[in-house]
From TrEMBL:
InterPro entries: DegT/StrS_aminotransferase, PyrdxlP-dep_Trfase, PyrdxlP-dep_Trfase_major, PyrdxlP-dep_Trfase_small
PANTHER family from the UniProt entry: 3-OXO-GLUCOSE-6-PHOSPHATE:GLUTAMATE AMINOTRANSFERASE (PTHR30244:SF36), TRANSAMINASE (PTHR30244)
UniProt-annotated catalytic positions: K193
Pfam families for the chain: DegT_DnrJ_EryC1
Name of this protein: DegT/DnrJ/EryC1/StrS aminotransferase
A GO term, aspect molecular function: transaminase activity
Residue list for modification N6-(pyridoxal phosphate)lysine: K193
Protein origin, superkingdom: Bacteria
Transmembrane segments: none
Example of a GO biological process term: polysaccharide biosynthetic process
C-alpha cells in the first residue's frame, strides 16, 4: 500500500485524513513551535517523547531513531551480532525484520508461525544451533508472542531476545508491555502504525543502561553528548519535528486503542457466524491485552473477497501476499513453513482505525456477509 492512495474509498484502511482534521489545531501548533524555534535535531521534543513513552511502557530507556528498520538494525549492532551468527525469526513479517539481520552480516533462520500469526514457540528449540545468537519474535497485529515460553528457551541456550514490536506498541501481558521482554527491542512509528508520526520514525527500548548508551551513540554518528567521536555510527535520529507531532498523538493513544478494540469486537460479533471465515480469536490467556493494529481474517476465497470489497469501496490490506522465504531474488534458503504459506494465501486485513465509525463498520460486515450469501 502506498499512503495517500485511499481517498476514493468509502471505508479507507487508515484514517490519517480524518485524524488531521480532528487534531489539526494541535498538530499545526506543534509544527509552528518547532519551526519558530528552529529546533530540528535531537532537541527538547525528542527528549519529551522519549521520557513519555518510556513512562507509558514502564521501560527504563527509550531512544528515538529514524525508523522501525533502523531500530532493529541498531539493536542488532548494539549486541554486536554479525558474521557467523544466526538469528531466529519468522517469514511472516515485513522484510525489515530479516533485512536488518542480513545487513549486520548474520544469517536469518526462519521458523513457522502459529494460528495467531505469531512465532510458533514449539518450533523454536529445534532451530537453535551452536551459531544462534538471538531470537527476534515479531508481535503481530497488536498481540504479544508467547513470551514466557520463548524466554524460557532463550534462557536455556543463553540467547538474546530482540522484540520486533513494530505492530504492537501498547500490547501487554499481565501488565508487562511489549518492549520490556527482550534485552533490547524495536518499534516503528510509521504512519500506518497505531502510534505514528507523519513520515518515518522508530523507537528502541531497553532496561540495560549500557545498551541504551550504545544506541544513542550509534544513532548520531558515534558522537557522545559532548559531541566527541567515540565510535563509527549512523545517521538515524528521530527528528524533533516528528517528535513534536508524536507528542500530540501520544495524548490520544489510550483512547485510540480503546476504539480499535471496540471495532474488533464489533467485527467479531458481526462475523462470528460466517463459517467460511476464520476470525482472530481471543487470547487463551486472559492476561493478554491486544491493541489490534490490524484485524486479519482468513478465507479460502481471499482474492475474490478482496475484489468484492474493493467494488464496495472498502479498502483492505494483505499482510503478506508472499512470505519472505519464497522471494527467490533474495535467496534466503529453503525453509519448511506450511502455516506461513497457507496464511499468505488466505489472510486479509480489514479496515481498523480510531476514526472508523459504527456505520462504516456495519457496512464492512454487511459487504462480507453479502459475499457469503448472508452467512
Amino acid at each position: 500500500m502506498v499512503l495517500g492512495q485511499h481517498d476514493s474509498f468509502q471505508v479507507p484502511y487508515v484514517g490519517l485524513k480524518q485524524e488531521f482534521g480532528q487534531r489539526q489545531e494541535e498538530l499545526l501548533a506543534a509544527f509552528s513551535t518547532v519551526a519558530a524555534n528552529a529546533s530540528y535535531i535531537l532537541r527538547e521534543d525528542v527528549e519529551l517523547f522519549e521520557e513519555s513513552i518510556a513512562k507509558m511502557l514502564g521501560v527504563r530507556y527509550a531512544i528515538g531513531v529514524n525508523s522501525g528498520t533502523d531500530a532493529l538494525f541498531l539493536a542488532l549492532k548494539a549486541l554486536d551480532i554479525g558474521k557467523g551468527d544466526e538469528v531466529i525469526t519468522v517469514a511472516h513479517t515485513f522484510v525489515a525484520t530479516v533485512s536488518t539481520i542480513v545487513h549486520c552480516g548474520a544469517k536469518p533462520v526462519l521458523i513457522d508461525i502459529a494460528d495467531d500469526f505469531n512465532l510458533a514457540v514449539e518450533k523454536l528449540e529445534q532451530a537453535v544451533t551452536a551459531s544462534t545468537r538471538a531470537i527476534i519474535p515479531v508481535h503481530m497485529n497488536g498481540r504479544c508472542c508467547n513470551m514466557d515460553a520463548l524466554l524460557a528457551i532463550a534462557g536455556k541456550y543463553r540467547l538474546h531476545v530482540i522484540e520486533d514490536a513494530a505492530q504492537s506498541l501498547g500490547a501487554h501481558i499481565n501488565g508487562v508491555y511489549a518492549g520490556n521482554f527482550g534485552i533490547i527491542n524495536a518499534f516503528s512509528l510509521h504512519p500506518m502504525k497505531s502510534l505514528h508520526c507523519y513520515g518515518d520514525g522508530g523507537l528502541v527500548t531497553t532496561n540495560d543502561r549500557c545498551l541504551a548508551e550504545q544506541v544513542r551513540l550509534l544513532r548520531n554518528h558515534g558522537q557522545n553528548q559532548n559531541k566527541e567521536l567515540v565510535a563509527f555510527g549512523f545517521n538515524s535520529r528521530l527528528d524533533n519535528l516528528q517528535a513534536a507531532l508524536l507528542n500530540v498523538n501520544l495524548k490520544y493513544f489510550e483512547s485510540d486503542i480503546k476504539r480499535r478494540r471496540q471495532i474488533a469486537l464489533r467485527y467479531h460479533t458481526g462475523l462470528m457466524n460466517c463459517v467460511d471465515l476464520k476470525l482472530p480469536q481471543p487470547p487463551k490467556d486472559s492476561g493478554y491485552f491486544d491493541t489490534f493494529s490490524s484485524y486479519p481474517i482468513r478465507c479460502l476465497k481471499r482474492d475474490q473477497l478482496l475484489r468484492h470489497l474493493r467494488q464496495k469501496n472498502i479498502e483492505c490490506f494483505i499482510h503478506w501476499e508472499k512470505p519472505l522465504h519464497l522471494n527467490e531474488s533474495i535467496k534466503l534458503g529453503n525453509f519448511d513453513l506450511p502455516v506461513t504459506e497457507q496464511v499468505s494465501r488466505e489472510v486479509l486485513s480489514l479496515p481498523i482505525h480510531p476514526f472508523l465509525d459504527d456505520e462504516q463498520c456495519e457496512y464492512v460486515i454487511a459487504a462480507i456477509k453479502e459475499f457469503f450469501n448472508g452467512c
